[in-house]
């Protein structure tokens, strides 16, 4: 570590120690994973089952919410919080997670609640007047760094966090979750070209490739979007591809040495995963099931999880 | 004025390791390159990617750094505006956007390179402080404030054609509050910002030679405007003139009119700003200003005419 990095790092840690409201907000609770304990895939499956049920239960209190976009990325978010994130500034690890596809926030709420980062009962207040939890990620929610919602913001934010961590001499990883829809935003391409140019090797991006956007299949809107991996690798990224509902594979792919380049983990997913009648159906991007549909969905998830 | 900004920033950055500079493919003639020599590790050229530049700066600020995102005024405001609104405004992050050549500075490069609606747009961002410095002292004040004190986003609107500023040596020192008295008068005052201060001073000089005592004030901070100071001007002078190199969608004079209405002032208000229509011709900065009806002579004539009306 250079003397300059050392000075920035001292400043970084002293800011944390001051614990002012701004810094408290800057340094969200991550609940570090326990080092040296293997990621328990069976336990992850049980948690993901619970997340889906909790989200469906919440859907019964509000006219609409993003169920299907959350169900496509639940295993990814669980893998990040239970298999990857470390928060140990003293040992140079202060990992971050940035949910760029802000409409997947129900998955993040559910995982943060499971982690104990969201205070008890807060999840149940979703959508209530004056409440803090709504349809997109907001930085006032414990455990969430950035307010997003408009697509194409998170990758650049993640680059900035990676730069700051590097300047501070930290060895932190920065994880970001983007959607395949965000690959239609020019700002995403700006950031994906910048990350390797600046040597942001601590950056690991998960692409939730559920192949469905608001109006229908992504291939109808962008017939030439694929092969995404080749496009990233031609811009200097290391690329892996996994089944996006296999949390163990996600943890393994993200944990690979990224040498001097950022890494993209292409996660092949199903929008609405876990509830057969919601899977790959565009209407469930933003709709709450009625009572009958809800009961059917809960039964279906039970069967999947059994 | 961009040279003065870069010099001020380097001086602060050498003392404060949190200061970083992001640029988007600057000109090789731009003084901003000297920051790279002084603080190489904290200089980031993101290429021609203004949207990502703002997002990256936001991410850096979230982790305690104090980034400045620098580029030509139209391209660091209009192009990445949603990133400014969300990443900086909604997240309330202390990133300073620095726009060089604001207004009609890049006269010969055409409307694409002009920034006359930038203040109207940027002033809508929650918590956004906007500086329009008129001289090197105000540039240094703006840079230091944004580097050390700003709690949220800021925009520094630079004019590189203010090098002929003739601010009197006995002018009131600049302050972070923003409205500063440069010369005194009694019949009228002109409140100007940035590049318009030199025109205000020239116009006031003409008017003073004719026997009209016209004071000049510089508003270095134009958002939020120090409305109490403006209310005082409206009490002190029978005529308050507001001049800004902006479109009518946001003008200094328009704000003076609003304060006059709110405070039920009896003073007369005269607003001078750009027409707000895209410039269809090319020319120097002075040529384009003249096309918009702004020069020291036209400002003096407008004030003279209004003073004559009042005396009639």
Description:
Chain A is an alpha/beta fold and 306 residues long. Chain A has helices spanning 3-18, 21-26, 41-59, 68-84, 105-115, 154-167, 186-197, 218-221, 228-234, 247-254, 291-305; strands spanning 87-88, 93-94, 96-99, 174-179, 203-209, 238-243, 263-268. A five-stranded parallel β-sheet of chain A has the order 3-4-5-7-6, with helices on both faces. In chain A, strands 1-2 form a two-stranded antiparallel ribbon. Chain A is globular. Residues 13-26 of chain A have low confidence and may be disordered. By secondary structure, chain B is α/β, with parallel strands linked by helices. Helices cover 39% and strands 18% of the residues of chain B. Chain B is built from twelve helices and twelve strands. Chain B has a seven-stranded mixed β-sheet with strand order 2-1-3-4-6-5-10, sandwiched between helices. Chain B is globular and about 65 Å long. Chain B starts with a helix and ends with a helix. Chains A and B meet through helix 1, helix 2, helix 6 and helix 7 of A and helix 3 and helix 5 of B.
